[in-house]
Amino acid sequence: xxxxVTDRLILxxxxxxxxxxxxxxxxxxxxxxxPGYPEEDDARAxxxxxxxxxxxxxxxxxxxxxxxxxxxGRVVGGLDFHGPADADGAVTVGYGLLPDERGKGYASEALxxxxxxxxxxxxxxxxxxxxxxxxxxxxxxxxxxxxxxGEDERVKYYETAWEEPA
Length: 166
Prior knowledge:
The chain is of the alpha+beta class. 28% of the residues lie in helices and 28% in strands.
């Protein structure tokens, strides 16, 4: 899978070796990593990708990405799909940015690119969710074209769906 390039970002798809490093208890720090990366969610994303690889589903997995700035190549966060699409073509997405990188529109920009890539790979529906008090994440999903499809006492649920692949 190739890098996804946007105006300001590069979404670099993790390889199995890169995912192993991120998931390690003490990952080898790489020059393009900024302090604080990888976060706990990045390690969980890497583990999900490794599980797909172990199950022979790496090629079906829509991706786990490092989100990098184009201007300097430094990692500002991560984004991943939580496994290959299910039988209905649906998959869940998660993302996160390092605290100093929030509020710059990076998450929405990255999510839009990842959604387009997932659609091109045959995914028919992408789901996401955020706690009620996580208003920035609500804005990210809305800005990327996802819509609220439900909520419970703790979480709002978002989704985007396509009739046909791109």
